[in-house]
Design a protein that fits this description.
Blueprint lengths: L1 E8 L2 E3 L2 E14 L9 E14 L2 E13 L2 E10 L5 E11 L2 E12 L4 E4 L4 E5 L4 E10 L2 E9 L6 E10 H8 L5 E12 L6 E13 L2 E13 L4 E9 L6 H6 L7
Antiparallel strand pairs: 1-3, 2-3, 3-4, 4-5, 5-6, 6-7, 7-8, 8-9, 8-10, 9-11, 10-11, 11-12, 12-13, 13-14, 14-15, 15-16, 16-17
């Protein structure tokens, strides 16, 4: 059995997504005497121009998904409206009983001046219960680094681990755009649980010289520790504008700081 189809739409709209030029091509081939894992081929190609998703705009984008027997390849590329920043992503997958194994073979986000990329070839496992297991997913850009590993699922006991080192929020804000501009340098180690229900945060996070829309906030410290005796999380958040580090803030706010 073989099927082919194509779609072209100069004004495509669906939810928060819209495109002035969209084309999709689908090819499928199956054998009635064989299982899908042994004899099947499914390929989907989507191209979009001048498209928007929520507040983000892009000049062009392309996605290809190929399922051949029990192997999967997914690739995506997009270019921002200013044609300076873009995203390149490729995933390779393998279907096994009750799960899908994925490997991130390529991830590049940014421009020639500021770019994030993935380290090595991190692996992920999508299980039959819809939980996602992430192994050593490391993103880096020079001295900036974000490590993620753990399990994301509906199970409240599932834990995700994060480690953030020297991340410049101002560079990321310029990269992604958006209505609110933020800045500061972030460091921290923390875990999250129950993300699908009531989120739990435990660990420490610091932001040095935090700013929102070019307005100086100061140094932000957030810590959360679980107390077994009290059966609760003790969370502490503080904002401090050191007069020695931020003399301009003191002068601009009638000699009133934050602590």
């Amino acid at each position: 059995l073989m099927m082919e189809g194509s779609l072209q739409d100069p004004t495509f709209r669906y939810g928060d997504f819209s495109s002035d030029r969209l084309r999709a091509d689908l090819t499928a081939r199956f054998s009635h005497s064989e299982s899908l894992r042994d004899e099947s081929h499914l390929e989907l190609q989507v191209q979009a121009g001048d498209y928007r998703w929520r507040e983000w705009q892009f000049s062009q984008g392309e996605m290809t998904a190929v399922l051949h027997n029990d192997s999967l390849r997914l690739s995506h590329s997009s270019l921002g409206a200013a044609e300076e920043a873009g995203l390149e992503l490729e995933l390779l997958g393998h279907l096994v009983p009750d799960s899908l194994k994925l490997e991130v073979t390529d991830f590049r986000l940014g421009s020639d001046h500021y770019r994030w990329q993935v380290e090595g070839a991190p692996r992920m496992h999508l299980l039959a219960d819809r939980s996602l297991v992430i192994e050593d997913l490391i993103f880096s850009s020079g001295e900036e680094q974000v490590d993620i590993y753990g399990t994301f699922s509906m199970d409240p006991s599932a834990v995700m681990n994060y480690s953030i080192r020297n991340v410049h929020l101002g560079r990321i804000s310029d990269l992604v755009g958006g209505r609110v501009r933020f800045a500061g340098r972030v460091n921290g180690d923390f875990i999250t649980q129950s993300l699908s229900q009531v989120p739990i945060f435990e660990g420490n996070l610091t932001i040095r010289r935090a700013e929102i829309n070019d307005r100086l906030i100061g140094d932000v410290d957030l810590s959360s520790i679980y107390s077994p005796e009290e059966n609760r999380f003790n969370t502490r958040a503080s904002v401090y504008t050191d007069p020695l580090r931020y003399p301009d803030y003191i002068a601009e706010n009638d000699s009133i700081g934050q602590n």
